[in-house]
Amino acid sequence: MVDAAASFDGNRVAANEISARPIGAHPNHWAATTSDGIGIADYVQFCASALFAPAQSGSWVSNWATATGADMVVATLACDARPALSLALEVVRRGPFKVARFAGGRHANGNFAAVDPRLLPAVDGPAIRSMFKAIARMRPDIDLISLERLLPDLDGVANPLAALPGFPSPNLALAVDLDGGFDALLSRASGKRKRKKHRSQTRKFEAVGTFRRIEARTREEVDRLLDAFLEMKEARFAKMGIANVFGDRQVRDFFRALFTDALAKEKPPFLLHGLDVAGKLRAVTGSSRSGKRLICEFGAIAEDDLAFTSPGDFLFFDNIQEACELGFDVYDFSVGDEPYKRLWCDIEVQHFEVLAPLTLKGRALATGLRQGARAKSFIKNNPTVWKLTKMLRRRAAGQAAPAAAEDDS
């Protein structure tokens, strides 16, 4: 049983573990520290040598905090004074509850908290819970810590949060194994049909005018591609009867800063690609790099006179081909099970979720969220029910016709 003593220092609270747990022949002393937004600078510094998923990067966290003015909490678990695990969370209101979650909310997918791989084997459930206790002491107003869409592992390293009680996320994530290169991939994934379709699309684009695939390499190109994406997404969500998760100005400012800042890196961790046909962007994707994994974070197509040519499929073909050429092992379509992804994917990733109540109110909320996740899983894993749900959403939005292929999870 862990015995923790709390000490306070300005905006920081430390829970010092009095009892030591032997790891091998050497005792290790854990300390959990928690701070508000001033701890982001320390978090960014830790990320310089840590392992983390894109949405837990220092760039993502700092830009989200700056663009949105989020109420941030940074909790760090240290082993013999060396940081081992750090959580950068935003505190949001959910009805009468306050919830601490990964920065970015629904935009943060495939999550893996920043860790020092050398110290990770020593991190266990009691140590992580000491972090949560430190958060509760500093922020008694927080009812629940909600850690969603967690990767089971990253680059072969098991997620330390799996040491806590959790449950499967309602949405699968899909990915493509790039082993052997692009030709080998096509030999496994109806390559003859894909190449034929790609050639047909090329002829249709050439009939309209010149076409090219663009990677945003300047601030102006970031603005152009992102503006086009946001316009496409707004029209798409309106057609489907879904709230536009990119609609808030602060969210848009965040993505603009994120992709612009990435340009300063030798290997930009966040990338924008677009398909320009006859001077107009017809498809846009936003991606992130994570080790040997290239992740499609989002995508959209223009609902115009060329939508029938499936410009999104064309751009994915080129994106995946380039990922193979650059030596990536996996092309990750991220969260959402959609037919256009299934055309490529041969890997299913089951994310998991961890809910840690800090108050009695938080326990009630956690129970409701678990029940909600089970209901979503039932709906989305039942093709008939899921098809009916999407049809009803479109009818509610005044659009009974099927929408173009795009992730609507």
TrEMBL record:
<feature type="domain" description="BioF2-like acetyltransferase">
    <location>
        <begin position="193"/>
        <end position="342"/>
    </location>
</feature>
<dbReference type="InterPro" id="IPR038740">
    <property type="entry name" value="BioF2-like_GNAT_dom"/>
</dbReference>
<dbReference type="Pfam" id="PF13480">
    <property type="entry name" value="Acetyltransf_6"/>
</dbReference>
<protein>
    <submittedName>
        <fullName>GNAT family N-acetyltransferase</fullName>
    </submittedName>
</protein>
<dbReference type="InterPro" id="IPR016181">
    <property type="entry name" value="Acyl_CoA_acyltransferase"/>
</dbReference>
